[in-house]
């Protein structure tokens, strides 16, 4: 974790808060925190990455959609099923439209939505 934070701080300082490499560092730190069960600390980072990528890269850019999927997965872990489902469906629809039904990223979104619906007993 200290190395992730150090990389993020250096990228923010040298590249700016919304540079793609900085946002990847934000996402990496969020993933690390989430993987260690620190979901409430990861949530604002995942939100930051998704929102900034949407602004800078566009709503249907593959990196933006990956960030939405990551945030949705975290929200599922937090039991926030309604918002997680909205984000999963948004990522799935955009990926289906832009990448095709059988693209690996699209299938990842299908899997994420299925896991969410199962967790929510739907």
Describe the protein:
The protein has 122 residues and is an all-alpha fold. Helices cover 82% and strands 0% of the residues. The protein is built from six helices and no strands. It has helices at 2-15, 20-35, 39-57, 62-77, 81-99, 104-119. α2 (20-35) runs antiparallel to α3 (39-57) and α4 runs parallel beside α6. The radius of gyration is 14 Å and the shape is globular. The protein starts with a helix and ends with a helix. 32% of the residues are buried. The model has no long low-confidence stretch (mean pLDDT 94).
Name the poorly predicted regions: none
Order of helices and strands: HHHHHH
| Strand element count | 0
Shape: globular
Mean pLDDT: 94
Number of helices: 6
- Beta-strand content bin: under 5%
Through-space gap between termini: 36 Å
Give the radius of gyration. 14 Å
**Helical amount among residues, as a percent range?**
over 70%
Main beta sheet: strand number and arrangement?
Answer: none
Task: Output the structural class.
Answer: mainly alpha
């Amino acid at each position: 974790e200290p190395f992730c934070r150090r990389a993020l701080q250096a990228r923010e300082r040298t590249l700016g808060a919304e540079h793609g490499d900085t946002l990847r560092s934000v996402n990496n730190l969020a993933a690390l925190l989430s993987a260690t069960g620190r979901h409430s600390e990861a949530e604002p980072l995942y939100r930051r990455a998704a929102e900034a990528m949407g602004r800078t890269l566009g709503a249907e850019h593959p990196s933006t959609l990956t960030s939405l999927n990551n945030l949705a997965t975290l929200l599922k872990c937090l039991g926030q099923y309604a918002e997680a489902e909205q984000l999963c469906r948004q990522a799935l629809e955009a990926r289906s439209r832009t990448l095709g039904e059988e693209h690996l990223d699209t299938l990842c979104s299908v899997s994420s939505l299925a896991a969410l619906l199962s967790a929510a007993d739907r």
